């Protein structure tokens, strides 16, 4: 991967002059590369990594494993894209293993997630089964540690 993209993924707020120093490239070249990445759909959005523990919000995040029947002529793609279009869905990935899709869903409470699974997701033609798990605590997100571990205090050594 291009080092510029790696730096932007780590911190998209780096200034052009900071990127220029880190990459050893002139600012106009960096501006052009970024513009090209945005135009070609390589860079789709810029987002902040937020620590949910520090927000006064009772939102619920669910990780849903979904088994689906692939469509003739479309495989998993059409069905996965249909599921990904739901407003509640924050991420959707095709997976290997015992299930086909991993779907990350956010809601205001457990009832809202349950409603999404029972009334929307499970009613999509081709969905065979779901298994829902809930996020309890986040330690690291998008490569960012959300809280530093407390310092380890050693007991004094006595002879």
- CATH superfamily placement of the largest domain: Lrp/AsnC effector binding domain/regulation of amino acid metabolism (RAM) domain
Structural class: alpha+beta
The fold-level CATH name of the largest domain is Alpha-Beta Plaits
Estimated helix fraction? 25-40%
Order of helices and strands: HHHEHEEHEEE
CATH architecture annotation name of the largest domain: 2-Layer Sandwich
Low-confidence stretches: none
Number of strands: 6
Q: Which outline best applies?
A: flat
Mean pLDDT: 92
Largest sheet: 4 strands, antiparallel
The DSSP helix count reads 5
Summarize the structure.
This protein folds into 2 domains: 3-39, no CATH class; 52-137, Alpha-Beta Plaits (2-Layer Sandwich), CATH 3.30.70.920. The chain is 31% helix and 21% strand. It has 5 helices and 6 strands, in the order αααβαββαβββ.
């Amino acid at each position: 991967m291009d080092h510029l993209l790696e730096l932007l993924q780590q911190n998209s707020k780096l200034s052009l002059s900071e990127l220029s120093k880190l990459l050893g490239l002139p600012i106009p070249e960096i501006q052009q590369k970024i513009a090209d990445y945005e135009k070609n759909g390589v860079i789709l959005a810029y987002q902040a990594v937020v620590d949910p523990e520090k927000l006064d919000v009772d939102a619920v995040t669910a990780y849903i494993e979904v088994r689906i029947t692939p469509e003739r002529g479309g495989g998993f793609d059409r069905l996965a894209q249909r599921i990904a279009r739901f407003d509640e869905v924050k991420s959707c990935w095709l997976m290997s293993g015992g299930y086909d899709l991993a779907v990350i869903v956010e809601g205001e409470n457990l009832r809202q997630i349950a409603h999404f699974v029972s009334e929307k997701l499970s009613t999509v033609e081709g969905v065979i089964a779901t298994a829902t798990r809930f996020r309890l605590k986040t330690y690291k997100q998008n490569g960012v540690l959300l809280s530093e571990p407390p310092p380890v205090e050693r007991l004094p050594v006595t002879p």
